[in-house]
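The passage that follows is intended for readers who have already worked through the single-chain material. We present the inputs for a multi-component assembly, then the predicted structure in tokenized form, and finally a short commentary. You are encouraged to pause after the input and sketch how you expect the pieces to fit together before reading on.
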Amino acid sequence: MIHPTALVSSTAIIGERVEIGPFTIVHDNVVIGNDVRIGAHCELGVANHLSGGRPLSIGDNSLIRSHSVFYEGSTLGAELVTGHRVTVREGTIAGRNLQIGTLGDIQGHCRIGDYVRFHSNVHIGQKSVIGDFVWIFPYVVLTNDPHPPSEHLVGVTVEDYAVISTMSVVLPGVTVSRGSLVGAHALVTRDTEPAMVHVGSPAKAVCATSKIRLQDGSERPAYPWTSHFTRGYPEEVLSKWRGEES
Amino acid sequence: MIHPTALVSSTAIIGERVEIGPFTIVHDNVVIGNDVRIGAHCELGVANHLSGGRPLSIGDNSLIRSHSVFYEGSTLGAELVTGHRVTVREGTIAGRNLQIGTLGDIQGHCRIGDYVRFHSNVHIGQKSVIGDFVWIFPYVVLTNDPHPPSEHLVGVTVEDYAVISTMSVVLPGVTVSRGSLVGAHALVTRDTEPAMVHVGSPAKAVCATSKIRLQDGSERPAYPWTSHFTRGYPEEVLSKWRGEES
Amino acid sequence: MIHPTALVSSTAIIGERVEIGPFTIVHDNVVIGNDVRIGAHCELGVANHLSGGRPLSIGDNSLIRSHSVFYEGSTLGAELVTGHRVTVREGTIAGRNLQIGTLGDIQGHCRIGDYVRFHSNVHIGQKSVIGDFVWIFPYVVLTNDPHPPSEHLVGVTVEDYAVISTMSVVLPGVTVSRGSLVGAHALVTRDTEPAMVHVGSPAKAVCATSKIRLQDGSERPAYPWTSHFTRGYPEEVLSKWRGEES
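Having made your guess, compare it with the prediction:
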């Protein structure tokens, strides 16, 4: 299941039933779990002096799509799913079932929880700390330098269940609080309020997320989104959510 | 004209005089017209359960530049031209002479007319409907989810001859009307007015497009742009435009 | 040091101690200096009728990371460093030690000085003119068409030591003046004032850059940034800066 054109180091540790696509390169310092599929034209385990010699570790049941690049020194949990051309630098630790859309750029030294979804083309700056069940939409940038360029990087924190919409920027050191929603094209300069909607540049809290109604004709509240959006989450998560609702 | 390192499925249907570059992969369910050039490091016809078994179809006289990825289940008309690293997902139907700049991401299930130009790094969300002779500039995002994340996607409509400038976001379900111009770094929250300029966040109509003058010393009106910009369009289109003017 | 899977033209001029990675293509009209490392899956020297037959020239001691594409007809000085998947079109002349982050897109016909740093995913429009020691952060776009689409392109000018923060757009013909700082998510519609901070959409000058203090506990001024940020610059540059300070 390793394509004959792939270049796989003999020192890489490859699990059972792993597929590796054409023209993909797997370097020395890589550990890949079981039942992982890796697309074409990827490069895994790029050596880097910032990785401290730690391997790239990819969890079981993961899917990495074509043209993606992962550095050594990061650990991604089970059920990772990526789009095409993602980049993951060194020093990042992510939980289970992280999704990174096409062109996503995880700059390294981030902490990412479980079941996080990055849509296409997000830029997660170094030292970001991201909770569980977070959604980040296209062209969002999490920054980290309060006075660029400098050596004093302060990451963004995104708490559980928060949602950041398309083309928004979060300034260094800011916390996007639990269950808050950042609207599209916003500049988040201060910590958001939990379960509140924030829009504009600079972003301001405008209402509770519970005020937003589904436009599917049901008129049900759209938030917390866990009340209606369940695609891709396992039964154990869904039952936890049902427990929180009742 | 198929490079010896390319991997081309024997079941793919390849036209006459087709060039396929080094390290490019063409999967089973692909139909390529005549006189098509495909660059290096591409992957065409990526299988996907959402494609309904339909092939990827690329029209005659097309040019696909390197590192691009096309899924099965989309149909692109004749004279497609792409930059590098474009992604086209399944279920999209595009007319003739679509241009997609480098890093463009067409998310799938879109309808795109004839002679549409996407500059670099646009993100065309699922269910977008785009007319003829539309221009979309870098880092524009057409969104589709009114309350993310949800299952209720409502695409953007962009009508004929509309222009959307750099780094603007169009919210779900909004129509960018015929011949309207969206300025750079705008957030379009409501339908635009035909042949009007819209700027800001949220975007507001500020004047007729005809008020904008060419800065080339001629002082002629810059809009409709068809009065002065003709590069790349065939004589049949130009004569149609001349007919509309007179 | 040329990987056996790389495809290197016999007419390309390759310096001493050059490494070329797997699956990389070097076309005919390319001149590579000494001690250059080129990653995997790159394509160098893409032929183009706009290049006037001039070669792609890469200076000594450069590093080009994987999946990058360079056209013929551009000249990059010594110590170029790129991230992954950068694109450099024809007709650009850059000085020494240019850094281009992952996904950077240099559209061609640009002039770029010495020691310029582009962070990830910048879009440098055609005809941009960039001085020395400039910093441009992710998702910044330098535009060039005052009334898109048109044939009358007017590039942006960015003067020495200027800094443009994340997700900002600079309109055509605008000058970002020496030592000025553009905040995140700004729309720069007019020339900025030297050594002033500009924020908002449209961007306005709000204070002198010298008012910004380092958040590292030192309370020292954060600008000019050369007073505290020295990583990656050679001793000859640092001694020049020390001379300017005193």
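Commentary: DSSP finds one helix and 30 strands in chain C. Chain C touches chain B through 32 residues (CB under 8 Å). How closely did your sketch match?
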